[in-house]
Write a structure and sequence with these properties.
The protein is mostly helical. It has helices at about 15-35, 40-45, 60-85, 90-105, 110-115, 125-150, 155-170, 180-195, 200-210.
Length: about 210
């Protein structure tokens, strides 16, 4: 379930719970059938109301998607910034960021799927906002990677961060292990990938030295 970010305007608890229920149902449907394969009546049916009744909470299906992806991005940014602000040792911070992303992906597989597939379906204002939030989250990772590994340059750190997101966010498509086992596997693989990051020139030199 999507929770409002800390600085979101307060809404009556009952209304916020209903909005969360609608967004959770919409996320499951969007993940399963695609954004364009789901109608407002489908979402209403999933939460036990008529489709038009949803307009008391959201002005359109586009608005649902916009709030959904904006909330995901705000939650990730807030979680990443909170961990970065602790002043933890760089490698410890990197581990905390990996575990945070792994937990979010495992606990919210439908949201991860919707996020991965539907950025292009956002309205222009929502897309700009989500992209801005995502860039700020990536910067936290880039700074953490470079602090932990000073020999990694900025482009390599950025590429490594996106590669790790791709690895972790593939979890909605994996059902071979239970939650705890999958978390341990993904955390170990992600940390190994990030800690093995190198600038392209260094990586090429290392590869040539093995020939």
């Amino acid at each position: 379930m999507i929770s409002p970010p800390p600085d979101a305007p307060d809404k009556p608890p009952g209304k916020q719970r209903r909005r969360d229920q609608i967004l959770a149902a919409a996320a499951e449907l969007f993940a399963r059938h695609g954004f364009h394969g789901v109608g407002i009546d489908d979402i209403g049916s999933a939460v036990g109301v008529s489709g038009p009744a949803l307009y008391r909470h959201f002005r359109s299906k586009d608005a649902m998607l916009g709030e959904m992806l904006t909330s995901i991005s705000e939650i990730l940014l807030d979680g990443g910034q909170t961990r970065a602000d602790t002043g933890a040792e760089p490698r410890t911070l990197l581990g905390e960021l990996v575990r945070f992303q792994v937990d979010f992906a495992l606990d919210n597989p439908a949201l991860i799927t919707v996020q991965e597939r539907n950025l292009g379906n956002l309205t222009d204002p929502d897309r700009r906002r989500v992209r801005a939030l995502q860039r700020r989250y990536v910067e936290i990772w880039v700074d953490a990677i470079r602090a932990a590994q000073p020999d990694v340059d900025e482009p390599a750190a950025r590429a490594a961060a996106h590669a790790v997101f791709g690895l972790i966010n593939s979890t909605p498509h994996s059902r071979h292990l239970d939650r705890e086992q999958m978390a341990a596997l993904l955390t170990g693989m992600a940390l190994a990938a990030v800690r093995g990051a190198a600038t392209p020139a260094s990586a090429t030199s290392a590869a040539l030295s093995l020939d």
